[in-house]
Specification:
The protein is 28% helix and 11% strand. The protein is α+β, with helices and mostly antiparallel strands. Strands 1-2 form a two-stranded antiparallel ribbon. The longest helix has 9 residues. The mean pLDDT is 84.
């Protein structure tokens, strides 16, 4: 498990992309789940927030989410 202390203009999605190589399969949501209270900071994280980045799980939140069919009200 790696720890990272945020710097100016850090965004969680960008940090996940740098650490894991992408933001697919609910990895951003997984990091928020592993770091309670992180979502309260908003899009741009303040300086000095310590974020724990665990190893990438074999399954993520998105794997457990049912598929929703897209419905268009207007074409």
């Amino acid at each position: 498990m790696a720890k990272y202390t945020t710097k100016m203009f850090d965004r969680l999605d960008k940090l996940c992309e740098d650490r894991y190589g992408d933001t697919q399969n609910g990895i951003v949501e997984y990091i928020i789940e592993c770091n309670p209270g992180l979502e309260k900071h908003g899009l741009l994280l303040p300086v000095g927030v310590v974020i724990e980045f665990p190893n990438r799980p074999k399954t993520t939140i998105a794997d457990k989410t049912p598929v929703v069919t897209l419905v268009r009200l207007w074409d």
